[in-house]
Amino acid sequence: MDPRIRILDRPRRDRLGEGPIWVPDRGVLFWVDIEAPALNWLDLADGAMGTRPFPEPLGWIIPRAGRRDFVVGLKSGFATYHLEADRLAPIGDPEPDDPDNRLNDAKVDLAGRIWAGSMHQAETAVSGALHRLDPDLTWRRMDTSYGVANGPTFSRDGRILYHSDSAARTVYAFDLAADGALTGKRPFLRFPDDWGWPEGMTTDEEACLWIAHWGGGRLSRFDPAGRLLRAISLPAPNITSCAFAGPGLDRLFVTSAARGAEHVPEAGALFELDVGVAGLPPRAFAG
103-133 pLDDT, tens per residue? Predict the structure, then answer.
């Protein structure tokens, strides 16, 4: 294995690791195991790790600006979560007519809004959508008809939203206006069959996208025109997401899933990569 790839020493693997996010105020990398379900964390200063079980599938966690609690995406919808008190409080369900759906992945734009996708829990229906949660805790459905809505990220200037339908092997680009309106939906990338399926993604300081490959065992870097610049093979088939972390935003952490690859020792591991480029500062929810 490439010496620039490190497997974090942990007592357990993630059934479906996802949603890594660096929270500078805490000096902690958080990520979720959707199917455990559980919240995981790593203190980058001392290497201490922790985990907290959740009562239902947990798709992501995002900090709130100026507060100690978080917003989380659950099967039942949006909620706030206070880690120290271990307290959940519902905000609301953006899909009350789709009880078999769950929230799956989310990111925050430059205006402090959360963009969150959804998917059918059993992955047997094309019922997923893309939602926008505004700082006043109201939400809007912004796009529909996803098999597995996944991996939002943004261009460096915040004017393009990238969002995937993993089931369709397609990453889309949208023009994102200052008021949160989306226009100009278009395919940005289509994954060939031998690449697997596009999963979570992030943007680096050079405006390139890093995209995880479910079923492809790798992480790839693409320029803003969609050209493949680099592919890093990893010793697990189902790579799920990635996030830059650390004070210099130069440590790239990559999540994976043991689901469907139980025979692979490294499946479900958390990886750390040295890729020679830094990421963009993470954003907190403004609400």
Answer: 999 999 999 999 999 999 999 999 999 999 9
Q: Are 273 and 30 in contact (CB under 8 A)?
A: no
| Residue in 253, 281, 265 with CA at minimum distance from that of residue 32 | 253
Q: For residue 160, what are the contacts with CB-CB under 8 A and spacing of at least 6?
A: 154, 173, 174, 175, 176
| Confidence at residue 2, expressed as pLDDT on a 0 to 100 scale | 74
Nearest in space to 50 (alpha carbons), one of 69, 35, 28: 28
